[in-house]
Structures are given as structure tokens and as C-alpha cells.
Write a structure and sequence with these properties.
InterPro entries: tRNA_endonuc-like_dom_sf (IPR011856), tRNA_intron_Endo_cat-like_sf (IPR036167), tRNA_intron_Endonuc_cat-like (IPR006677), tRNA_intron_Endonuc_N (IPR006678), tRNA_intron_Endonuc_N_sf (IPR036740), tRNA_splic (IPR006676). Helices cover 28% and strands 32% of the residues. The protein is α+β, with helices and mostly antiparallel strands. Among the domains are: 13-82, tRNA intron endonuclease, N-terminal domain (MutS, DNA mismatch repair protein, domain I), CATH 3.40.1170; 183-261, 3-Layer(aba) Sandwich (MutS, DNA mismatch repair protein, domain I), CATH 3.40.1170. It is elongated and about 85 Å long.
């Protein structure tokens, strides 16, 4: 009678690949080529492969690599002096654990589609790593997103918080489409300044109200916010009087800016939204400049915050903005004022 055989197959134990640490990166012999050929680790060099620090540490931690004279802890200590290395490694490890093949560059990482690797597939994401206290420099961010788009990749921010938790944000440069509903024409009129706002006498359901301007003071009077007044003055639809005399658009802008240093950016972004027949209203209750209606929906579709071209904003502020927008089922856009126009940047939290 033959002995019982196990119903499962016992896989042979694969010995760890031997490698050396040269003070900068880790280099394997020819047996390391299987790591590249099968799983996309490293880059070929000679008969072996050269591993980036994140790759070497990950393989050492998974006991797939043997670097004589070094443990995971001691090799990590060697790299720890490199700026932002630990959070970079944490993102690399997370992406690998999610089943992606990851290589360094051209930002921090490029990430391949699941099941694909260098030589046999294309990368899907370009990833930039930040900590929760890092600033977002919008000029640089837009440049990197444009580069990613030109390479037909998705640009992703990987943010590592102080408890080593990771959050991923997809960044898109949005080109606004025109609204499905067009604003009605507005008859020319005159208004009177009341502080920085303007008051105009119009009947209920006037063309201004139907176009989404102003807030009723009573049945006879409509109040216009500074950005609304500036837009209507610039369009030549409305004139405003102060102390009995008409005030120019430039003089009114200077006057209103005294109490609102963000007015320049807000006014430009507001005008751009109006050019697409969107209806921007104050977004104060949501912590942003505008809530924006894009069509027939009774609820606003977007939250938009206006910023100058060289704006720098902590990623923690962006995180709060995205979470707020998500909680009220809206998209979060930052309207960045450029010399060539307004660039709308969308932040959206994603799960890779």
C-alpha cells in the first residue's frame, strides 16, 4: 500500500538574492535578473540589476534579498539621512503591497498597471510624495500635472500623515464646459453703493435675479456683492454711484480691495465662471469663495477657491477642502490665476 501523499504542493524555498551595498544603492549579481524579469524590480546593469533604496529595503524586509553585513534596520539607518526617505519608502511599500510594479522617477514614482511591468507594459500613474505639513506650490503642481498629461499618465499626490497613514489624491486640470442653461440678457441699470456692496431697485423676479445675481433686501431692493458688481460694471451692464457721482470700475475695485485682499483673484475667477454661464454664489458656509451652479440642478455642483498664480497652501488645508466637498457631494476646484487665464485644478481623493 502506497503512503498517503499531501493534497497540496510544497513549493521549494527560493533562496534570497545576494547583493552588495555600495554606499548609495544596492547591486545584485546575475541571479538578481529574475527580480527584474518577473516583478519589475531595479534596472538592469551588467549581468545584474541596480536597486533603488526603496526597492532594496522592501526586498530585504520581504526576505527576498540578502545584503551581507546589513539587516533591514541597519540599511534603513544608512538611508535615513536622505531627505524625506522614510515617507517615500512607506509609499513604495504600500503601492507594492497593493499589487503594483513601481519604479522611481520621473517625479517620485511611476506606477504600472496591475499585471504590467517595465518592458512589457506602460505606467499608469506618476506619484509625488508629500507629508501632511508640506506646502502645495500651485505653479510647480500645475507644471507637473501638465507633464504627466503630456505623457498620458495620471498625476497622483501620496500624502503621509504623522501616524504614517497614507492618502492618495488624483489631480486634474479641468477645462470647464459651458453650462446647459444660459443666463438671460440683463438690461442696463444704475445702483448705489452701500458700503462695499451695491443696492439696486428692481422688481421681484428681475432679470438680474433670474441670472443668479444678488440677494433680496426687500421686495423693492436687491443687494449685490463686490464680485458681482465688478463683473456687471466690467460688462457695461451696471453703473454705480458713490456720494451722488458715478464711480469707475478701477476706483471701485481699489475701494473694495481695502477690506478684501483676496478680491483680485476672486474677481477674475468669478468672471471666468460667468463666461461659462455658471452661477457662482458665496461659498462661505463651505469655507470657500464660491459654490457654483452649473445647470438646472437646485444644488450647487462645485466648490471653487480662488488663488493667485504663486499661491502656496499647506496640504492639510487642501485635505480639509476635499473632505468638505466630498461630504456635500461636490467637486473641489482651485481657480489659479495665471497670466494666460484661469487654470482650474481639481483635487479628488482616490483609492488605488
Amino acid at each position: 500500500m502506497s503512503p498517503l501523499r499531501p493534497y497540496y504542493t510544497v513549493l521549494p524555498i527560493v533562496p534570497a538574492v545576494k547583493a552588495i551595498f555600495d554606499g548609495t544603492s544596492v547591486l545584485t549579481g546575475k541571479d538578481g535578473r529574475t527580480l527584474y524579469d518577473q516583478s519589475g524590480y531595479g534596472r538592469p546593469e551588467g549581468e545584474g540589476i541596480r536597486l533603488a533604496p526603496q526597492e532594496a529595503l522592501y526586498l530585504l524586509h520581504r526576505q527576498k534579498l540578502d545584503v551581507p553585513g546589513y539587516t533591514f534596520d541597519s540599511l534603513l539607518a544608512e538611508y535615513a539621512d536622505q531627505r524625506n526617505f522614510l515617507r517615500s519608502f512607506l509609499v513604495y511599500r504600500d503601492l507594492r503591497e497593493r499589487g503594483y510594479v513601481v519604479q522611481t522617477g520621473p517625479h517620485d514614482f511611476r506606477v504600472f498597471r496591475r499585471g504590467e511591468k517595465p518592458g512589457t507594459g506602460e505606467s499608469l500613474y506618476l506619484v509625488r510624495v508629500l507629508s501632511e505639513r508640506d506646502p502645495v506650490r500651485f505653479t510647480k503642481l500645475i507644471e507637473e500635472v501638465v507633464t504627466s498629461r503630456n505623457m498620458r499618465k495620471q498625476y497622483v499626490l501620496a500624502v503621509v500623515d504623522d501616524e504614517e497613514e497614507l492618502t492618495y489624491y488624483e489631480i486634474k486640470l479641468q477645462k470647464l464646459a459651458d453650462a446647459s442653461v444660459h443666463a438671460p440678457p440683463i438690461a442696463k441699470a444704475e445702483s448705489v453703493l452701500v458700503g462695499r456692496s451695491a443696492m439696486i431697485r428692481v422688481p421681484l423676479q428681475s432679470d438680474l435675479e433670474r441670472a443668479g445675481f444678488g440677494k433680496r433686501l426687500d421686495d423693492e431692493r436687491l443687494m449685490l456683492a463686490p464680485v458681482e458688481l465688478l463683473y456687471l460694471m466690467d460688462c457695461g451692464v451696471l453703473k454705480a454711484k458713490r456720494d451722488g457721482a458715478f464711480i469707475s470700475t478701477a476706483d471701485y475695485f481699489a475701494y473694495a480691495s481695502e477690506s478684501d485682499p483676496e478680491l483680485a483673484a476672486k474677481e477674475k475667477v468669478y468672471a471666468e465662471l460667468r463666461r461659462h454661464d455658471f452661477t457662482p454664489r458665496t461659498g462661505y458656509k463651505f469655507g470657500h469663495h464660491f459654490r457654483v451652479y452649473c445647470g438646472k440642478n437646485v444644488h450647487s455642483d462645485l466648490l471653487v477657491h480662488a488663488i493667485e498664480k504663486e499661491a502656496v497652501m499647506p496640504i492639510s488645508v487642501v485635505s480639509r477642502s476635499v473632505r468638505m466637498a466630498h461630504s456635500v457631494k461636490k467637486k473641489m476646484l482651485f481657480g489659479c490665476v495665471h497670466t494666460t487665464g484661469i487654470q482650474f485644478v481639481e483635487f479628488a481623493r482616490i483609492k488605488l
